[in-house]
Amino acid sequence: MLGGAAWLVKVALIWENGGTNTTDGLVGVLFDIGAIGIVLGAGIRAWHAPASGLLRHRLVAVLAAVIAFVAAVNLPILLGWVLFGRTWLAEEVGVILTAVGALVLGVRWVSAGNRPVATD
Fold it and tell me: What do you get for the CA distance between the two ends of the chain, in Å?
C-alpha cells in the first residue's frame, strides 16, 4: 500500500509543478519507493498464493506478478500516448491506475485478515 500511496503523491507533485519535473528530486525518490513497494507487495502476495507450496510454483507466481506489474504500468502509458499525445499526464496514466490498484488490493487483502507481510 505504501508503494501506491508514494506513486499518487508523485503524480500530485508532478501536477503541481505543471509536468516540468517528472524524474528529479523527491519525484524520483517517490517513483523508486512506489515501484519497490508495489513489486515487493505483489511478489510477497504471489509467493504465498500457490496452494501447493512448491518452490517452482512460487517462483512462477512471483515472475508472473512482476510481469503483470510491468504490463499494468506500461500498457496504459501506450494507450495514453495514443489518446492524448506524449504529455506528462498521458505518461502517468499507468502509474495512477497501478497505484490505485495496489491500494485497493492491499486494503482488501489486509481487511480480509491477512498480515501485510505473511510468513511461513
Answer: 21
